Amino acid sequence: MPTTANTDNDTGAGADGGAGAGAAAGTVAHAGADGGDTSAGDASAGGASGGRPDRFATAAGRLLRSPAAAARYARLRARATSTPRPHDVPFGAGAGVDPDRVLVVGAGPAVGWGVSSHELALPGRVSRRLARRTGRGSHVAALAEPTHRLPAIRAALDEVFLENWDVVVVTLGAADALTLRSPRSWGRELDALVVSLVARLRPCARVVVVSTPLTDALSTFGLHSSGAAERHAEVLRDVAAEACSAHARVTHLSLPPLPALPALPALPALPPPALPALPPLPQGTTRSEEAPPAVDDPTGRLYELWAEALSEHVAPLLHAQRARTDSPQRARSRPQPERARLDAITAAGLDQAEPTAALHDIADRAREAFSTDGAAFDLVLDDHQWAVVSTLGSAQAMPLGESFCVTTIRSEEPFVVADAWEEGLDLPRNDIRFYAGWPVHTADGTRIGALCVFDPRPRDVSGLQVERLREFALDIERELFRRAA
Description:
By secondary structure, the protein is of the alpha/beta class. 40% of the residues lie in helices and 15% in strands. It has two domains: 3-258 and 298-322, Rossmann fold, CATH 3.40.50.1110; 338-484, GAF domain (Beta-Lactamase), CATH 3.30.450.40. The chain has 15 helices and 13 strands. It has a seven-stranded mixed sheet with strand order 1-7-6-5-3-4-2, sandwiched between helices. Strands 10-9-8-13-12-11 form a six-stranded antiparallel sheet. Helix 4 links the parallel strand 3 and strand 4 (138-144). The longest helix has 26 residues, at 55-80.
């Protein structure tokens, strides 16, 4: 089971966490001093009388060890250039409606080292587990910072609009433990990052700071840690827990280490079975080698273990959020500013977006799935709707007075109309009578348009599978990401 640290005593978003981090840093000197590394730093870092660490000896020990630490970090950076990492769409989606939104940002696990797809890394695995735990949909995105450094993580977050996220997970990398960073300054950097996050999130949104076992973090690169680095990682973990405890909306999670697989009992030796002789091969051909047996995938097991621990930690936070009237989920379902939508469309280069074969394929599949005459992906601009792709004619504009999608983007929920001509509905009276749409978002959660299906005939919508609408809308979002990349 993972260990967690939590608190309910809020000292304010602007509280200085340096004192707490510094207090925990007092234990670091001892861990770094009696390190067990074979470098000369250990000898000079011995404790004072009574086993208490000498502050100057500890600092000297870190300095003497710094060439070896720098070399280890250089090996990490070099190995990172050849270690597989995902380059596909950086989010995973758990099936269901009313999705929770979680952003995983940082180094180490957030990057997805050792796997080729985000579906196999934290976004895909966490989103699926969260959906099973909550019974709702989920959207888990990754913002990777592969340099492993806290200032770089904060700089990456400074460019992100955060108000559409329910939980932000910050994963800490291996570099600071490898280079034996000063716990006091590292704690101040972490606290500054947490304070900045809390100030920019919705009032009820949560932050989770995640410490990763150093041995497992390095194993994804095929590297091993030293005894001194392992002990320093434990100290930085304690500093992180203490820094988080100063903020009511911030929790700390220590990911569990990967347990070793139990050894299989030895099987008694059996004589080889007598096999009939194989017929001779035609001249000029060779017999292909047998496929190698399946091997254990420790990296896959590692992400499975971490995803389970993270979803177990985050699901109760989401549940507690939704019980509040000021929850980020409620706020996210309100109409978003028109300026934000227009800026997002412009930034994505979609003002006069042209259809692509992939977008056409998504619209065709949606039309077939719902057995309708039409399906479309429409962008909602300032005074008109732009049909990026439509089975009834793409790259066309429509006045907003004739648009159903302008209503769809006003909330996070699907917009379904059984019969638009029904009395009392303030909807366009045109050739569309049945309509069902799901909002399409940019990466930061801004609603820019909708994936919709429609028909000139009304229909019974009691059994409509709106989850399928979300799947097609997510396909649109994936294709927009590929197009931007």
